[in-house]
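> forwarded from #structure-qc
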């Protein structure tokens, strides 16, 4: 058994497409997506939800377009959104035509589900005319009947064959601005299908473990499934599918990328599991800090350790560190060096202000470097 270098992530080389103004594939950053759960026909509610996802850092967002009322509202939603909008189309090809004309940056559609070659041609022509990409979305729960009859059950080979069939329909019409997903709720099935597909296509791959479950269970399944693929360099854009609010999907997506060192956004918190040695309530402190620091986008690290056993070592590796001490006084580390103490009652506000100041300092330094390079 060969063992890979412990921090070796070599990205699979895919060709790059554009989803609106966001590059996907090639050497572009792995993007984080989510999907709204409001009726798209209600533009105000949908835009409000998109705003929360934008605040969480989403790169691309998908909205469902099952009816004429939804595609009619899409133009207003696209105009209000700061990120590219993907229109989710399932069966009626006319919804795809309407969504493309309304300004969708991408159409999520399986060409084989919309009928004749003439209908596929109409959708491709609308995508070309409006600069739309297309996402082919194969799902283990909705495989074509002939593939289930051929293979007997959903399996990696069936998902890959379905994807290749849909790809051919687009390529036959000289359309190549597409990405592909082969999702399944069984993470073993999904991972194997993505691995097989990555060997035979050069298009960008959209990763996901579909119907992953609630916040805790779905996060674990998604982290294991997508994390293993990303570690092997497979994946150009991701969506964490949770029975939770879409902004939570975005935060989990970034946490997966941060854990692998693929993208860094916001505060990376290193904290202890809590034990009887703790000098303060680590659990509640970390919860409060994560909530209070959601607005920070600048990448930086914060360690929160309840005692001085592992605290100093962790603090030396982070931008800001906090370790528990006796008599309600706790040590604060700045850039790995012991700097001062803080009382328990002032600790939370103090750490929040230190993180905000450090983020501003990093941003200012980056702006100065950019000016100097011009």
């Amino acid at each position: 058994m060969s063992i890979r270098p412990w921090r070796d992530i070599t990205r699979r080389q895919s060709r790059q497409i554009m989803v609106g103004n966001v590059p996907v594939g090639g050497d572009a950053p792995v993007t984080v997506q989510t999907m709204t759960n409001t009726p798209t026909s209600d533009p105000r509610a949908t835009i409000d939800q998109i705003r929360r996802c934008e605040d969480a850092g989403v790169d691309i967002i998908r909205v469902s377009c099952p009816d004429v009322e939804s595609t009619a509202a899409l133009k207003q939603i696209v105009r209000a959104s700061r990120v590219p909008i993907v229109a989710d189309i399932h069966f009626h090809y006319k919804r795809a035509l309407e969504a493309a004309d309304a300004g969708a940056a991408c159409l999520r559609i399986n060409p084989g589900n919309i009928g004749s070659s003439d209908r596929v041609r109409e959708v491709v022509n609308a995508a070309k005319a409006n600069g739309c990409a297309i996402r082919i979305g194969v799902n283990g729960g909705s495989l074509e009947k002939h593939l289930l009859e051929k293979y007997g059950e959903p399996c990696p080979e069936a998902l890959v064959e379905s994807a290749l069939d849909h790809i051919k329909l687009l390529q036959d019409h000289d359309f190549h601005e597409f990405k592909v997903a082969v999702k399944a709720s069984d993470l073993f099935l999904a991972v194997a299908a993505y691995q097989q597909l990555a060997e035979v296509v050069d298009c960008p791959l959209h990763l996901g473990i579909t119907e992953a479950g609630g916040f805790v269970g779905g996060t674990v399944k998604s982290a294991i499934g997508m994390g293993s693929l990303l570690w092997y360099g497979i994946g150009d854009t991701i969506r964490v599918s949770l029975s939770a609010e879409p902004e939570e999907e975005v935060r989990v997506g970034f946490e997966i990328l941060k854990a692998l060192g693929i993208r860094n956004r916001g505060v990376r918190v290193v904290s202890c599991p809590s034990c009887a040695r703790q000098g303060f309530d680590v659990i509640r402190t970390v919860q409060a800090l994560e909530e209070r620091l959601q607005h920070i986008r600048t990448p930086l690290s914060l360690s929160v350790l309840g005692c001085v056993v592992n605290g100093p070592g962790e603090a030396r590796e982070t931008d800001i560190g906090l370790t528990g001490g006796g008599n309600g006084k706790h040590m604060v580390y700045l850039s790995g060096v012991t700097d001062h103490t803080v009382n328990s009652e002032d600790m939370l506000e103090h750490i929040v202000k230190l993180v905000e100041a450090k983020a501003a300092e990093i941003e200012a330094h980056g702006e100065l470097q950019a000016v100097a390079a011009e």
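QC bot note: Residues 269 and 302 are 5 Å apart (CA to CA). Residues 267-373 form a domain with the Sulfite Reductase Hemoprotein; domain 1 fold (CATH 3.30.413.10).
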